[in-house]
Amino acid sequence: MNNQALVLHRRMRALDPDVLHCREVELRLAEDGRHVLLNRYVEMYRHEHVSWCAIQQHRVPLARMVRWMVDNGEQVRG
Questions:
Q1: Which letter does DSSP use for residue 75 in this model?
Q2: Based on the structure, what is the number of domains in the chain?
Q3: What is the per-residue pLDDT for 45?
Q4: How deeply is 55 buried, as exposed, middle or buried, from its count of CB atoms within 10 A (0-12, 13-18, 19+)?
């Protein structure tokens, strides 16, 4: 199974010369093929100082996500 992530958002910015702020949100299909994983990653890097990192992962059944899209999406007429 292809486990490549779809990057929804990626941003890196220098807050000052010694501080780098990184943020990424990605979506991928779980190994079981029945769930979608949404990963949120945030890191603050400071040169020669304490850095921190936060990772959150949300797991949603694929069938529930598709049902939500049908119920809440805008119908497109072609």
A1: P
A2: 1
A3: 87
A4: exposed
pLDDT digits (tens, 9 = 90+) for 21-55: 999 999 999 999 999 999 999 998 887 777 889 99
Q: What is the CATH number of the domain that holds 60?
A: 2.20.25
Please give the span between the terminal C-alpha atoms of the chain, in angstroms, as a whole number.
32
Report the percentage of the chain scoring pLDDT > 90: 67
* pTM, full prediction: 0.71
H helix runs in the chain, sequence order: 62-72
Indicate the helix (H) or strand (E) that contains 54: strand 52-61
Count of positions (residues) in the chain? 78
Strand order in the sheet with 35-46: 6-16, 19-29, 35-46, 52-61
Query: How far is it, in rounded angstroms, from Cα 27 to Cα 10?
Result: 12
